[in-house]
Amino acid sequence: MGDAKRKRGHFLIAVALASLFFTLRRPLFRSYQDNDTAVPPQCLSLRVSLEPSRDFISSRNSLGSDRFVQGTPPVLIRNAKIITGARNGTEIVFGDILLDKGLVLGVGYIPNALARLPNLQVIDAAGKWISPGIVDAHSHLGVHSAPALDGASDGNSHKAPILPWLRSLDGMNTHDDAYKLAIAGGVTTAQILPGSANNIGGQAFLIKLRPTAERSASAMLLEPPLTLTLNSSDTRPKYRHMKHACGENPSRRYGQTRMDSAWEFRRAYDQARQIKQAQDSFCEAAEQGLWDGRTPFPESLQWEALVDVLRGRVKLSVHCYEAVDLDALVRLSNEFEFPIASIHHAGETYLVPDLLKKAWGGIPSIALFASNFRKKREAYRGSEFAPRILADNGLPVIMKSDHPVLNSRYLVYEAQQAHYYSLNPALAIASVTSTPANALGVGWRVGMLATGYDADLVMWDSHPLALGATPVQVYIDGIPQLFSPATLHKPAPFQDVPRTPSWEQEVKDTIKYEGLPPLTGTSMKGTVLFVNVSQVWTRADSAAGVAPLLGSEDGAPNWQVLVERGAIACFTPANDVHGNCATRGYSRDAQVVDLAGGALMPGLTTFGSDLGLSEIMLEPSTTDGRVFDPLTMAVPSILGDSVIRAVDGLQFGGRNTLLAYRGGVTTAVVAPMGQGFLQGLSAAFATGAKNALGDGAILRSETALHISVHSGMLASVSTQIGALRNLLFSSNSSGPWSRVKSGEIPLVINVHNADIMATFLHLKHEFETRGGSSLRMTFAGATEAHLLAAEIGAAGVSVILAPARPYPATWDHRRVLLGPPLSRKTSVVTLLEHGVNVALGVQSDYDARNARFELAWAALDSNGAIDQATAMALSTSNIEKALGLDSADLMAEELVIYQGGGMFDFESKVIGVTSGCRAAVEIF
């Protein structure tokens, strides 16, 4: 007999014995029934709905929120554009909103009688947008804290694959530096999940992010289950929350196959099912008057939460990517009859929407990244069009952060990207407000702005779907969270919903090719005429960086531009029939491309990720691999004193590389992979090249020498700097080090800590004072560089900020300059003010495609200090100077073709590249 059948047989015997016992004791049980103790409270509680009743909500509206802080004054916000979340997210109310006792008392027209509350604070929104507070359905705030320290990381247990009895609350650090950052991005509610190392990682909890007087994790809870309730008068049952994970993460941790994982799930649920059946039999007998008041209710402290999953009393969040895992999950839900609230990461859900509709208990919501894909195999088919495709198939879409994978401060950016790639704007807003709230079982109190809802809202400086939208104020439970916020002036176009481009063909191709559509374009070798052109910027004068050739920043589409063999031959106003292009007779043979107000702009250069050396980061066979670090490793003798070159491991045609190319990045610089002290020599290559032998494929085989110096490595910081000192001052250094010492190539130091940077500035000064040549030095990463902006500028050191928007990830990053609304200036602006050659880099391969949006964001956050030319230089001339590239390396200029707008617009899309090197125009 198998284990499952044997256990089921034992259970049936136990039920039969219990039934006999109840029968023999019937008179005694009846006497208890006469005293109203016939049914135990556990059985009675199982009958109670977890959805709040109308009476409860009505009572709450009159009494106030359970999270109301006494002494909080009422607030009336006037003259706002309010996105309420009602009517499928489409309702927008122009008017006022009244907050009191932690609740919304009215939206739109507020009667004078209602607005005469004592101590009322009146705020004029002056036409600004207000949305519900952002709800992050997938966060590890507090359990993966910032800065990351060994003593403050509690996201995963490594005890076993099945751990439903663990609780994220028990590891939630209240001193995480990221709470205030998330609030500054408009996040008011978050689900704190255990990590995904286990098939069942434990129970999750909902929190409000505001600080509390109690300063405890428990005081942050929203809708705590009764098992945690400290207030004995609170008897209303509430949903639990739980995390499951399938696929690569638990398999990698425990050496499982997918078959092992499926069995672990089934075995766990069978255990829970047996307990549930015992409880049901017990309660059935008790309801028949067969309980003596003393026989204990059959339960297990370990398995009670999983039993509640089977009862539909848990909002289940499942980390699951691939179709094979989704299929197993749906079958599991039907075998054991439990609902799935949401599926997270969900990379291939858009390929199997009909399968997901077969999940037991209803359609799950799908929680996604906008563009963070391809880190591992199961994420390889992830698509930026997944939100649109899922919505078209009737599945609720959630955008989530997985903080700190993505800084939850910028969760709204995920919704913005989803909208850019054609998700309906109402659904995009709902994806970070009402949809996650509904999936988490709290959609009756958060995620919308209506009478009786929690007073959680965000006032924005621009439309929340506009790039760079920044909170002016954030309210949680009616309490303002930003004190003296640094506000920004955003141009008029950012006050409306962006008019995004059409992606209909791309959506069709994504489905047709199951997430892997062809990314190469069509080469046009002849003459191409671009019409309805608003701007052309070029880099003809490399010393001046980028400069406008024609048009203006107002983007009036008045020009025609003729391109021959990939280079601009002439241009003329659209209505000038006698212009300098007319004599070329372009009308006879030119292929015409309408840019609809678009532009020709310089190609961008990216640096900081492993683009070109890896295709799937966590699949070793798809990467060049990590280099040996001579400071901390035994280097094979066959290598001798060789310094590794990235050019020897370059891969062309990877999806991240081609998507970067299709996003306007024509050049990439990459250093050998590794986080040790000595990385090696970087290479510059053309992202659109087919292989290393193509014309202009490798722009420079050795651009700079790269090292990393960080705290927490195997060697101490002083040891790392001692090694560098020896290499710089030793008369025996040769090869690349001699070229660094002569000033031929730059030394690029991956460093974040300002104290370590200060030591490098001393070292540079010492080297040059001793009679050495000028040492070309660049700090990459450089989160704390703003603290030494004047000194870095005086020393002539370049800085490449990566990430472009800082985060206190480790102790070396902790002194961040956060930018609006938390600080008036950004690191970019501060460094530019001190004459630093500053550039923006990226950290992840997938993110290279978003370089142009980072430039726009940097300009928007500067309050006018960064103009269009300066913004473009951050990823063109500035980054190339920092990495040792010059105009000779770039060869013939490549211009990116934008249709519908310029480089910085959510309204535009890249449709091709003109390449003088390849003597062609490539259209995507």
UniProtKB/TrEMBL annotation:
InterPro entries for this protein: Amidohydro-rel, DHOase/Allantoinase_Hydrolase, Metal-dep_hydrolase_composite, Metal_Hydrolase
Pfam families hit by this protein: Amidohydro_1
Superkingdom as given in the UniProt entry: Eukaryota
Gene Ontology annotations for the cellular component aspect, listed alphabetically: cytoplasm
Gene Ontology MF terms: allantoinase activity
Domain Amidohydrolase-related: 386-469
Gene Ontology biological-process annotations: purine nucleobase catabolic process
Name recorded for this polypeptide: Amidohydrolase-related domain-containing protein
